Structures are given as C-alpha cells and as structure tokens.
Amino acid sequence: MNAPDSLIVLITGGTGGLGKAVTEAFLNAGAKAIVTYTRPEAFADLQARLNHPTNLEGVQANLTEEASVRQVFHHIQQKYPRLDVLAHLVGGFWMGGDISQTPLDRWQQMMQINLTTTFLCVREALGLMKAQGGGRIFTIAARAAVELPAGLGAYAVSKAAVIALTEMLANEGRPYNVAANVILPSIIDTEANRRSMPDADTAQWVTPEAIADVLVALSTGAAGVSGTAIKMYGK
Q1: pLDDT tens digits, residue range 165-174?
Q2: For residues 44 and 235, what is the distance between their CA atoms, to the nearest angstrom?
Q3: Which of 10, 161, 142, 20 is nearest to 73 (CA)?
Q4: Is residue 190 within 8 Å of residue 177, measured between CB atoms?
Q5: Residue 176 DSSP class
Q6: What does the pLDDT look like over 15-31, one tens digit per residue?
Q7: Per the structure, how many domains does the chain have?
Q8: What order do you get walking across the sheet with 56-60 strand by strand?
C-alpha cells in the first residue's frame, strides 16, 4: 500500500459529522481527499473549516442513483492514476418501532440510504481496485446491527446487511489485494446526535476522531486485516 502522503482517498459523506473528521485525518496524513457532497454550501463549509486545502476536491453526487455514482468513479479514473481508499460514510437513522409498525416507505428509505448507497459505491470501487491490483474499502455499520435491539428494525437490518456485504467484498477482493472492513460504532459524538439526545451521557460515545484514526491506520498498514467488523463502542 502507498505511504499516507501519497494516498488517493474517496470519502462519501465527507461533509457530515463523521466525514469531517475522517477527511481532516486523511488530509493531515498528506493524502489527496475526494469528497462527495449533495449541497454545495456543505462542501464550502468543509473547505472553510479546513482552511481551503489544495489536496481536497469535492464532487457533487446523489449516491442513491446508479448513474451519479458511476459518474463519480469515472471522474476519478479520468483525473487520477488510481484510487487507494474508499471510505463510505453515507448513512441514515430512524428510531422507528417494531417491525409490525414499520411503514414500507421507511423500510425502503433505510435500505436505500444505508445499504443501496453502500452497494453502488463499493461495487464501483471493487472493480476499479481489482483492476489496479489493490486497495482498501471501509464501510460503516452500527452496534445495533449485531445486537438487533427491538424498536430499531429497519435501521438495524439495513446495517446488518452492510456487514454481510463488506464480508463478501473481503472474500471477493482477497485474491486482488483488496481489503474490506466495516466499523461498528455505538453512538457517534456528532453535533446532530447531541441535538437529538440532549440528556445523554456523551462521555460514553465514540468520537469521530477515534474512528478517523482507525481508518487512516488501516489504510497504510495491516494489509492482512480484511473482512473484519471493528467494534467501536466508546468508553
């Protein structure tokens, strides 16, 4: 794998609470970061926060649409010699209720934002990385995906499917030196989560920076680590 200061990294969801920390960590390591965004103002805010680094590029995309995802990867292939890392951070949450109380549209929404976006992005990344002889793919699931608490049906099932998809990627990518791992955080300490849970004990949450550090470390070493679900439950 290439040294940190020569990595070319695609970060989907790079303007979100977790994405900002991951983008900053890769930039601090010297990598070239390509960030997808949906709202131009969100990417402008990211640029301002990071003091407009020259090794940061934004690509507007709707990752729920196949054509848009393919356009992102086509752009990368046209502009860059390779893609070393995909960090797919896009996702959504819905508290919901029991399966018996889950509307079909909510179920489909969770599958689309958590599973379909992951599938579309990792499919393109895997094909590209197999052709170039290696790479790293990271996805984000959740603690709920393995504990399956009642009341989080659609969300938990969509994230459990992300784990299975990542394990499949690891198996398919292994002969080509493509590693795939999935992070299982508990509650991530973001501004959005603090607003939605104002009375929670945030000291128990996992920080975006902790997750970012793991992604950078696994991008530059530990070549044999693949198909692993990495539990990050905070303190």
Answers
A1: 999 999 999 9
A2: 33
A3: 10
A4: no
A5: G
A6: 999 999 999 999 999 99
A7: 1
A8: 56-60, 32-37, 8-12, 85-88, 135-140, 178-185, 229-232
Q: Which pLDDT score is estimated for 4?
A: 62
Question: Token pair of 8, please?
Answer: 């070319």
Tell me the CATH number at 106.
Answer: 3.40.50.720
Domain containing residue 117: 4-232
Q: How far apart are CA 168 and CA 139, in angstroms?
A: 12
Q: Distance between CA atoms of 186 and 7, rounded to whole angstroms?
A: 28
| Chain segment 69-79, per-residue pLDDT in tens | 999 999 999 99
pLDDT value of residue 6: 86
Q: Copy the structure tokens of residue 183.
A: 């992070």
Distance CA 189, CA 212 (A): 13
Residue 131 buriedness (CB in 10 A; 0-12 / 13-18 / 19+): exposed
Distance CA 65, CA 88 (A): 15
Q: How far apart are CA 28 and CA 9, in angstroms?
A: 13
CA–CA distance, 131 with 80 (Å, rounded to integer) = 14
Which DSSP state fits 152? -
Please report, as a single letter, which amino acid is at residue 196: S
